[in-house]
Amino acid sequence: MKRYLYGMACLAVSTSVWAAGEVHIGNWPDYMPPSLLTQFEKETGVKAILDVYDSDAALTQKLQAGSGGYDVAITGDYYVPILARAGLITKLDKSKLPNAANVKPEFRHPAFDPNRDYAMPYMVVITGFSYNSARVPGGRLDDSWKSFFDPVPAVRGQIGDLDAEEELYMAASWYLGQDECSENPDDAKRVLAVLEQQKPFVKTYSDDGPIDRIVSGQVIVQHVWNGAAERVEQQLPGAKFVIPKEGARMLLDNLVIPAKAKNPTAAYQFVNWMMRPEIIAQVSNAYRYNNAITGSEKYMDAALLRDPSINIPKDQVARLRPYKTCSTAALIRCRGNKRGSVDAVLCRAYSPRSSTPRLMRAAQSTSNVRSVAVSQVTPTKGLRWSNCSWRVVTLTQLRTPMKRAISGKSASMFSFPTTPIGSNELESKPLEKNHVRSASCASAATSF
Fold this sequence. Notes:
Oligomer: single chain
CATH topology of the largest domain: D-Maltodextrin-Binding Protein, domain 2
CATH superfamily of the largest domain: Periplasmic binding protein-like II
CATH architecture of the largest domain: 3-Layer(aba) Sandwich
Number of helices: 13
């Protein structure tokens, strides 16, 4: 133990001379303790500056546009291969990351980055749902996605869904007993049917404020991440977190270094520093998520370690579903639910040249005007599609009332008169600046 502490002390001293200046960090809101940034500056002399984005897609857009100015960014497992294939993040020089040896064995070779060539672990997150036991009949809901997608009458209209298409698609797939990577178009249609059936029971689709939403009584059931669920339980003693028996997503958030980092030396220093057990434990204690670093348990709150939503009981570990690599055929399909007066289909597009999935929306409004999604505002590779008619339009051709500002945004909704051209005419054609690619699908159930 003394030898270990001495080694860590030497490491802290040696890394403090690596860099100077500033390190710019990008992260989601409320996911990095400010005190930690102050501590890093105090120990290293490098000023840590935090900027936030609201999604992985927003981060991707910033990196594609060359903006953001990040030296380090936090991103989910699904986006690591996307960013790596696009050349937007750095292949790591592990000689500069000695603390990578602290990564727990079960997290050293994840499917999204088998040798951890691009990403080092941040937090371990599980998605399930929480409910207020005081407001459900008998004080208990079954530990099944059925309680969420096909709820008892007392809960209907009192459900909060995360605005996370991938999360909903996977949960509905597991509820149906289907593989989330199924290539069968009928499986996608069945998922759509589940989401459409749930829609009348959902009060809101939002990632913002899930803790306050259930604590304040706005909803009875909330689709939620386990760290947020644990914070709900601190404020609402009757709250229960469910890891559904059909399967629950276990996602790994990661530290990456953008390819255009201005201070890569400081970036390596920060990533390495974050893998010290006593450092990453501070993030776990603040936001109530587990982490992937050996020895961090000694610095984590005892109550957190006892919480079954964080330290998963052995009989529920098999329910956790880590990142899975889907085939190209599985990626090219429509997904969806209904929101308001628009039947929205959530689609993952696939670029055969860059192997880069992108979330897009296609929709049909109540008038004879199609609602479409921005594929890319800046020039991009062509995409191959089928069973949908596609066209390229300039921004000036897009019309109100659904028109929104698109600078730096993805999956924004627009409308246009339907005079599409065939999809074959768009294959391998790059988009010019200020043009967008748009789709006119036959219906919400269209699979392509």
